[in-house]
Amino acid sequence: MTDTAVPARDRATATTSSAASPAAPHRRSRRDEGPFQARRRRLFWPFVAVPLVLYLVFFLGPTLASFWISLHAWDGIGEMKFRGLGNYEVLLGDEVFRGAFANTLIILVGVGLAVFVASFALAMVLRELAGRKFARAVLFFPNIIAPIVLSVLWGFIFQNDGLLDSALQGIGISDGPNWLGDHLFFVILLGLAWVNTGFYVTIIMAGVDRIPPYLYEDCKLAGANAFQRFWHVTLPLTWDVVATSAILWTISSLKIFEFLYAFGGTTNDMPPTGVWNSALFIYGQTFGGRTPPYLFGYASAAAVVTLLFLIVLVFLFRRVLRREVIEF
Amino acid sequence: MNRMRTTTLAALTAGVLAFTTAACGGSPGSGDDTLVYWSMWEEKEPQAEVLKSAIARFEKQSGTEVDVVWQGRKVLQKVAPALRSGEVPDLVDHDHNSLRSTLAEPGQARDLSAVYKANVPGEGKTVAAVGPGRYRELTTHDGKPYMLPYEVFAQALWYDGSKFPKLADKQPETWDAFLKLLDERKKEGRAPLALDGDIGFYNSLWTVHLLERALGPGTVNKIAADKSGDAWRDTKVVNALRRVEDLARGGYFAEGAFGSKWPAMQERWAAGDSDFLLMGSWIPSETRNSAASGFTYRSMPFPTVAGGDDSVHTGAIGFAVPTAAEHPEAAEKFLAFMMKRENIEGFSTKALNLVPRPDVEAPEQLAGLAEALKERKITPAYDGIDADYPNYPTEVFEPAGNALLAGKITADQFIQQVADKQAAYWKKH
What number of C-beta contacts closer than 8 Å exist between A and B? Predict the structure, then answer.
C-alpha cells in the first residue's frame, strides 16, 4: 500500500534504499503520510476482508475439505468412515480413472497443440487480411455460445445421416465412417479444438499486433519464408503471451466438462466411460448417471490427484516457458 | 465521520453478500400446516398438470397447503445434500430405482406400511388393495415399503398395428419365432429393429431380457453381485449370450442404430423407417409428435426362450417420504388421498401412462401391455442392478454390452471384459 502511494519517479529508489536502510528519507512513516494515504489505508481492511473471507470460505475451505473427505468413505449423508489412503490406492488401480486421466492428458496435449498451431496459423493469416476484425469476431463466436448448444449442433453434424454424411454423399462417398459409434472421442477432440481456437486466436493476435510491421518487411527483404518469419520474429516477440495462454489452457482444459457431458451423454445418462476425462469421472462418482453412486470420498481423492497434477504441471510450465522478455 | 462511513459501507457490502448467498439456501420447511413436495416433473409436463389438480382437491378438503417445487428429474440429487442438513421436503417422487438407492438404502425413507394399510378416502378399500400392493417387488426394501407408486412402466416390443394387422392375434411367443419374423422382414428389404444405441441402458434391454429369459428372473442381479466376476464364465451364461451375439451379427438393427444421437432412431421408427422397438411404456407419449399418420401403437411381450420365464420387466414411479420430513403424517394422508380413482385416472387419460390401479382403463396405446401386467409375473426393470449397484451399468455392464450388441465383440470377449471390470468394480465399492 505505501509503495503505490510513493510518486512513480521515486519508487525505484524508494524500494531499493528502504531495503538498504530503514531510515531512508523517501520512506514515509505513518505519522507523516498525507490525509489521502491515511484514508486509503483505513479502507484497506474493510474492503479486503469481505472478499478474503469469501475466498477462504468458498475456495480454500472446500479444497481443504476435499482433501479431508478423500481420506474417508462417505455417501454424503451418513457418517464418514476413515480409510486413510485406501481411496488413493484403489483409484490408481481403477481402469476407469486411468482411462479418464489419460483422456485428460490427450485433451491437454493433443487439443492444446491443435489449438495453438491453428491459432498461430490464423493469426499469421489474419495479420495481412483486409476484414480481419470481422474474421476474428467469427472465430471467437463459438466461445460465447453455451457449450450445450454447440454439442447439439455437433450431434447434428456427425450423426448417422447427419450433415457431414450428407456432404460426403454429395461428393460420392456413401460409406463414410461411423463417427459417433466408432470415433466418438476423436470427434469430441475435434469439437474442443474448434470451440477453443477462437479464444486463443484473439489473445495471440493481440500479441502479434504489437510487433512492428517493419520487422516483417525486413524479413521479406532478407528472403525469409513464412516459417522463418514465424520462428525468428513472431514466436520470440509473443513469447510472454504464449506462455500465459499455455497456462490458461492447461488450467481450463482440466476443467472441461459441459461439452463432453452434453455431447457424449444423453438426458439421463453419462457419456460412455471411454470418453470420460477426470472432471466427468468426479461427477460420475458422485451425482452422475441414472442412479448416482454418491462416492464422495473416492471422488474427492480423484479431485485431489487432479489438483496436485495441475499444480505440478503449472509449476513446470512456468519453469520451462520462462524467458527473458524482449523489449521492442 | 469518515471512519464511520467506511465501516458502514463495508458492513453494508458484507450484509448484501451474506443475504444473497443465504437466499440461495431457501429453507423448505415453512408453516405448520404446509406440506413441502419436491417433484421430479417440470411444471409444464402432463404429469405435473395431473398432480396440480389433485393437489388442489386435497388442499380444499384437508385444509393443508401443499407447497410444490417442480425440480425436474434431478430432484434426488438435490434431496441428497438436503438430507445432510436436515432441511428436507416432506414428500419427493421418482422411479423406484432412484428412490431406492438415494433414500431406501441409506435408511432415509420412511416405512410406508401404514399408508398401504390405510383406507383410500371414500372408497372403503385399503391402499394396497386398490392396486399398489401388486408391485411389492419394486416398492419394498428389507421387507418394508419405501414408496407408493402412482405410475407404472413396463418394457415390450412396440410396433405399428396398422402395418401389422395380424400380429396382434398371432404374436411370436418364442425367440425362434421372433427371429423368423425378423428374417421375413429383412427379406422384404426392411430394417426390422430400431435402437438408439448411444444409450447403454437401451442396449442392455436386449441383453438383460435374453439372459433372464434363459436363466430366470434375478439372474443378472445375482451375477453382478459376484465379487470375483467369475459368475459370468458359467457355460449357461455363455450360451444365453450367444443369442445376443447372433442377434447383433444378424444385421437386424437399422442403419444408424450405433451412430446416432438419441432420439433420432426412435423418431425414425415412429416415422415408419423400421418395424420393432424394444422400449418402455413411455414411448407412445414420447414419440407421438413424430409418428406417421395412422400409426397405431401396439406392443408384444418379449418372447420366451425354451419355455422359460415370461415376466414383464417393470418399473414404478411414485412418492417417498424422507425419515427427516417435518410433516410425515400430513404426507401420509396426502398419499392415501392420491390413490383415489379420480386422482390416479389423470395419469392414464392425460399423461398416457400405465397406473397401478387395474380398475383404471389404460390408454388405448398401452392396453395390450396393461393386460400382460395383470396376467404375468413382474420383474424389476434392468433386474434392479442400476439401483443395487450404482454405476455398475455405466462402468461395467454397458461398455462391453454396447460393443456386443453392435457386433464389435463376441460373447466370449464380452464375458472376459465384464468379468475383469466387475472384479475391479467391487474393489472400490
Answer: 127
B279-328 residue pLDDT tens: 999 999 899 899 999 999 999 999 999 888 999 999 999 999 999 999 99
Distance from CA of B319 to the nearest CA of A (A): 17
Question: Is A261 part of a structural domain of the chain?
Answer: yes
What is the residue range of A224's domain? 86-321
Q: How confident is the model at residue B15 (pLDDT cuts 50, 70, 90)?
A: very low
CB-CB contact of A18 with A24 (8 Å):
yes
Query: Is A4 a residue whose pLDDT tops 60?
Result: no
Closest residue of B to A152, CA-based? B261
Q: How confident is the model over A42-59, as pLDDT tens digits?
A: 888 888 999 999 999 999
- The CA–CA distances, whole Å, from A202 to A111, A164, A194, A208, B191 equal 17, 28, 14, 10, 49
Kindly state whether residue A127 falls inside one of the protein's structural domains.
yes
pLDDT at site A30: 62
Residue B36: strand pairing partners: B67
Rg over CA atoms, chain A: 26
Whether A267 and B9 lie within 8 Å, measured CB to CB: no
CA distance B300 to B205: 15
The listed CATH number (3.40.50.150, 3.40.50.2300, 3.30.499.10, 3.40.190.10) that belongs to domain B154-311+382-428: 3.40.190.10
Contact B394 A295 (CB under 8 A): no
Interchain pair B256, A159: CB under 8 A: yes
Beta-carbon contacts of B259 under 8 Å, excluding residues fewer than 6 positions away, are A159, A160, A178, A179, A180, A181, A182, B197
Residue A269 lies in a domain: yes
Residue A79 lies in a domain: no
Nearest chain A Cα distance for residue B136, angstroms: 20
- Give the domain CATH number at A110: 1.10.3720.10
Residue A9 has pLDDT above 70, yes or no: no
More confident: B62 or A32: B62
CA proximity to A317, closest of A261, A244, A236, A257:
A244
Region A62-78 average pLDDT: 92
Separation CA B282–CA B218 (nearest Å): 24
User: What average pLDDT score do residues A114-136 get?
Assistant: 88
Contacts of A285 in chain B (CB under 8 A): 391
Nearest CA distance, A98 vs chain B (angstrom):
12
Decide which of 3.50.50.60, 3.40.190.10, 3.40.50.960, 3.40.1190.20 is the CATH code for B29-146+315-366. 3.40.190.10
Domain count, chain A: 1
Nearest to A76 among B13, B81, B199 (CB): B81
Q: Which of B227, B260, B279 to mutate to test the interface with A (most CBs of A within 10 A)?
A: B260
Where are the domains positioned within chain B? 29-146+315-366, 154-311+382-428
Q: What is the ipTM of this complex?
A: 0.82
Flag if A292 and B421 touch (Cβ within 8 Å). no
CB B281 within 8 A of CB B381: no
